[in-house]
């Protein structure tokens, strides 16, 4: 079968890596890829709205091997990992995962991985797109701590959607259904070693299967697809529509090294009573005391359906015809839309805007410069769907 995508359009030489599932994604008809953590991330097999509906009503499979792991081991692995994040890892048991932030000395966000604690001094950080292994090695260099850092042979895939429980039960038995949100088990499937977690990037019920032997990627992929064949299981890319509905942030656009946890609504990640020191502690305490100048707010953007934004869109204050509106912006740019897309479920455009705090209050009117022209927008609460996360926890 001839591949549906010409890799020469984005690849030159062998520098960019292919995942253990790569041949299976080509075979399945992947139509586009992006580069993420120096690897190819499949982004689309079908119309993006069709993929969204498959995720929301059925079960989907994503190749997310680009979630590269930083593995931290050694006698001081706990102390070192606890130093990287403002979350108190003494509250994380072996067999449990946590969504964490890694912060810089000025409080900026270096990354927002899912952390798995496989042993008292054994951690994985499943990473967004940035070079955290290099960051961690730099931190370790003069830390005086005895740790070993590396990238293990671990390649996740996500199985997401309301029918995902049926698929993982067929693969791994009843024990997997007992997993609580953000917990995991180490197991195998016909000798294929894996870790199965109750996590995902979709806002739906979901699991991640961390393959621990890259030579068996296509074999694992085929087993998963066979287990869901009668349920209409489909390979898709990660759904930006669904993650924006759920208020899930995308590192590199909604939060960056230039933003801090409080600005993006993740202040709960900072355990201010944490006894152990961590990078950025003093800066984050100062930011909390002084208050914010800007904040990431939920917005609804009026008008016809918009495609996912490919650039940050300028935001200015005011209502009709660029008037003074709320806060007297006088028509000047006050912020940017970081992510926005049409929600088929809500039948409106929703997204996030980084704006001064005076413009971040619910009901504030804004103007957004979209590719189709300037449009009215209104600040609204987020997440836009399922604010208590009852769906993924169910």
What this model shows, in words?
Helices cover 19% and strands 29% of the residues. By secondary structure, it is of the alpha+beta class. It folds into three domains: 7-67 and 153-244, Gyrase A, domain 2 (2-Layer Sandwich), CATH 3.30.1360.120; 69-150, Alpha-Beta Plaits (2-Layer Sandwich); 247-380, Gyrase A, domain 2.
CATH topology of the largest domain: Gyrase A, domain 2
Number of strands: 21
Low-confidence stretches: 320-329
CATH architectural grouping of the largest domain: 2-Layer Sandwich
Helix content: 10-25%
Order of strands across the biggest sheet?
Answer: 12-13-14-11-3-15
Q: Beta-strand percentage? A: 25-35%
Provide the number of structural domains.
Answer: 3
Keyword list:
9 helices; Gyrase A, domain 2; 6-stranded mixed sheet; 3 domains; 394 residues; Alpha-Beta Plaits; 19% helix; 6-stranded antiparallel barrel; alpha+beta
């Amino acid at each position: 079968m001839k591949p549906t995508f010409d890799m020469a359009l984005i690849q030159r030489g062998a520098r960019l890596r292919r995942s253990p599932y790569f041949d299976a994604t080509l075979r399945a008809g992947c139509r586009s890829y992006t580069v993420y953590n120096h690897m190819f991330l499949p982004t689309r097999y079908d119309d993006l709205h069709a993929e969204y509906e498959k995720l929301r009503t059925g079960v989907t499979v994503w190749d997310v091997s680009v979630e590269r792991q930083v593995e931290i081991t050694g006698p001081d692995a706990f102390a070192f990992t606890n130093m990287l994040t403002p979350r108190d890892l003494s509250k994380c048991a072996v067999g449990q995962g946590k969504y964490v932030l890694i912060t810089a000395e000025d409080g900026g966000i270096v990354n927002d991985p899912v952390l798995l604690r496989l042993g008292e001094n054994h951690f994985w950080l499943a990473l967004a797109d940035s070079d955290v292994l290099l960051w961690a090695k730099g931190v370790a260099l003069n830390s005086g701590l005895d740790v070993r850092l590396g990238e293990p042979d671990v390649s996740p895939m996500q199985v997401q959607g309301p029918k995902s429980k049926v698929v993982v039960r067929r693969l791994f038995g009843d024990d997997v259904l007992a997993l609580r949100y953000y917990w995991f088990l180490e197991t195998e499937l016909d000798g294929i070693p894996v870790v199965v977690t109750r996590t995902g990037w979709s806002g739906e019920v979901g699991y991640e299967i961390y393959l621990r032997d890259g030579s068996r990627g296509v074999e694992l992929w085929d087993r998963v697809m066979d287990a869901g064949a009668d349920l209409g299981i489909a390979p898709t890319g990660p759904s930006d529509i669904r993650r924006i509905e759920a208020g899930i942030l995308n590192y590199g656009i909604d939060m960056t090294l230039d933003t801090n946890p409080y600005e993006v609504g993740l202040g709960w990640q900072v355990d201010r009573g944490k006894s152990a020191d961590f990078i950025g502690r003093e800066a984050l305490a100062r930011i909390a005391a002084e208050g914010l100048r800007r904040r990431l707010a939920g917005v609804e953007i009026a008008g016809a359906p918009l495609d996912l934004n490919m650039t940050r869109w300028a935001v200015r204050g005011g209502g009709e015809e660029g008037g003074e509106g709320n806060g007297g912006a006088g028509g000047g740019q006050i912020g940017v839309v970081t992510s926005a897309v049409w929600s088929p479920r809500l039948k409106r455009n929703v997204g996030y805007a980084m704006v001064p705090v005076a413009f971040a209050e619910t009901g504030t009117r804004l103007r957004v410069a979209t590719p189709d022209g300037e449009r009215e927008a209104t600040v609204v609460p987020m997440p836009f769907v399922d604010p208590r996360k009852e769906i993924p926890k169910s």
